Amino acid sequence: MKMFYRIFTAFFFISIVVTAISCNSKQDALSRLETLYEELQQNCDEYSADDWDAVIAEMNDIDDVLKQNQSDYSDEEIKEIGRLKGLCLAQIAKSSAHSFKEQLKNVINEAEGLFEGFTEGLTDSRR
Predict the structure, then answer these.
(1) Rounded CA gap, 93 and 106, in Å?
(2) 74 — alpha (psi -120 to 50), left (phi > 0) or beta?
(3) Residue 31 CB contacts under 8 Å (≥ 6 apart), including other chains
(4) Which ranges in 1-126 belong to alpha helices (H)?
(5) Mapping DSSP to helix (H, G, I), strand (E, B) and coil, where does residue 119 land?
(6) What is the pLDDT of residue 106?
(7) Could you give the 3-state DSSP secondary structure of residue 90?
(8) Phi, psi (5° rounding) for residue 9?
(9) Is the confidence at residue 5, as pLDDT, over 60?
(10) Cα within 13 Å of Cα(94), Cβ side
């Protein structure tokens, strides 16, 4: 009887540890996604190209963990995951749009300067 009790107790503790580890990585992925969104929201305007590469790598890593634990998530958690992914993508899109706008402004200014220089060169009376 004592042997059965010991085996049962060992199996019970192993089950608890496995469940805790599974829940931990499941919750860890959600926490990482929330943290990534908060980081993007606060600092994405100052990101370099290397920072953006790190963001993409982190999103891919989180996505891999989420896929590994996909069957463990409730419908509500899956909805929250989708919401957080959407928020991250919105921050990325807003930052990209801002960066594109700045680059376009620079291109337009350069084109204006090019045109002015070209017309000035054509009307230069020295030649």
Answers:
(1) 20
(2) beta
(3) none
(4) 2-43, 49-68, 75-123
(5) helix
(6) 84
(7) helix
(8) -65, -45
(9) no
(10) 14
User: Quick check: 7 and 50 in contact, CB under 8 A?
Assistant: no
- pLDDT category at 8 given cuts 50, 70, 90 is very low
Cβ atoms of 25 and 69 closer than 8 Å? yes
95-125, pLDDT tens digit by residue? 887 777 788 888 888 888 888 888 888 887 6
Q: Which residue has the higher pLDDT, 3 or 43?
A: 43
pTM of the predicted structure, to 2 decimals: 0.62
Residue with tokens 């959407």: 86
Non-local (6+) Cβ contacts of 41 within 8 A are 87, 91
d(CA 80, CA 119): 58
Q: What is the pLDDT of residue 87?
A: 92
Q: What is the pLDDT of residue 22?
A: 43
Judge whether 86 and 60 are in contact, CB under 8 Å. Answer: no
How far apart are the C-alpha atoms of 116 and 8, rounded to whole Å? Answer: 86
**DSSP assignment letter at 44:** G
- What single-letter amino acid sits at 28? D
